[in-house]
Amino acid sequence: MNLTMRAILSSTAILLSAATANAFTSSRIGATQSIGRARTASSAQVGELIEFAKYEGLGNDFILIDDRDRDTPSLTPEQSERLCHRNFGIGGDGVIFALKAPPEGDFDFSMRIYNSDGSEPEMCGNGIRCFAQFLKDLGADAESYRVNTLAGPIVPVMNADSTITVDMGEPILSGPTVPTTLEPNAESNSVVEQTHVDKNGKQWKISAVSMGNPHAVIFVDDLEKDVDFEVDGPALEGDVGAFPAKTNVEFCQVLSPTHIKMKVWERGAGPTLACGTGTCALVVAAIRANKIPRPGKGEGVRVTLPGGDLVIEWREGNNRVYMTGPANLSFKGTAMLK
Ligand code: ZDP
């Protein structure tokens, strides 16, 4: 095939190339002479080819962009939304940008993320593990990274068994800060199993927790019988009367004192296979609502999500939440912006 034909073909299709993690030899993913563009402060344009890597943490999948020489994302929210489309784009639950550290503060990098609908969340638990693995594969090989996020500093630590543990910070419990308008009914203005009726007239008991982003945690006896996922998820996500910034929704079933099963309806992304921040929020909510006892020091709670398991420890000494789980490269490639 000659070059002209290739150019024509590439203008109608997104080129994907499979690769393994050890294929990262240069400091820049897939850097080539012929493809790519000058990394300026401006955003990329329609018709441009951009390099990306695709990662997943328990099937919560993200397009990773190497913007380490930039302060702001090289793609707009609209371009990111189109790239996340599973038929017209690469497909993904969000686009994550690895950016320069800000001049102030002791950071290694900054992270920004756009959801698959183009909205921008403050934080992303599975995403930050993917982010850390992406940096490692790019050659920034450290034991841990101090990452500047819209939810403050977050520190992923690379474990010897190839899992990643992330210090997700302290949960935010004060209702107005989450933010929720549900009436506080527990200490520190928090909302624990507060009764709420959704727009379809269905009654729920909601615990509101923020891990930088808002979560509505709901415990049910039976995940399959008690939840009409595709109806209840969006009804609660978009309930701006109760959650003015919308909310992620976690439906949970306690299986044992150290094991919880959860299904998530994500704000701005809909049903996803896993949600890191949501898993942290639900363990905090479970302990506060006495659904499970607080585990001993150094012990975690196992949470089974549709995409696999995460282990969460809410440490009593410092009130911080630690999340441990995997993050893996799926493929890398070149995509055309539409
Ligand atoms: O808060 C939001 O809008 C979420 N959709 C952000 C993504 C959260 C995520 N699923 C996580 O793992 O924390 C990525």
UniProtKB/TrEMBL annotation:
Pathway named in the protein's UniProt entry: Amino-acid biosynthesis; L-lysine biosynthesis via DAP pathway; DL-2,6-diaminopimelate from LL-2,6-diaminopimelate: step 1/1
Enzyme class: isomerase
Any single GO BP term: lysine biosynthetic process
A Pfam family of this chain: DAP_epimerase
InterPro entries: DAP_epimerase_AS, DAP_epimerase_DapF
EC number assigned by the record: 5.1.1.7
Domain of life: Eukaryota
Keyword Cytoplasm carried by entry: yes
Keyword vocabulary terms for this entry: Amino-acid biosynthesis, Cytoplasm, Isomerase, Lysine biosynthesis, Signal
Enzymatic reactions: (2S,6S)-2,6-diaminopimelate = meso-2,6-diaminopimelate
Coiled coil location: none
Extent of the signal sequence: 1-23
PROSITE patterns: DAP_EPIMERASE (PS01326)
Alphabetized GO MF terms: diaminopimelate epimerase activity
NCBIfam families named in the record: DapF (TIGR00652)
Family, as annotated: Belongs to the diaminopimelate epimerase family.
Name of the protein in its database record: diaminopimelate epimerase
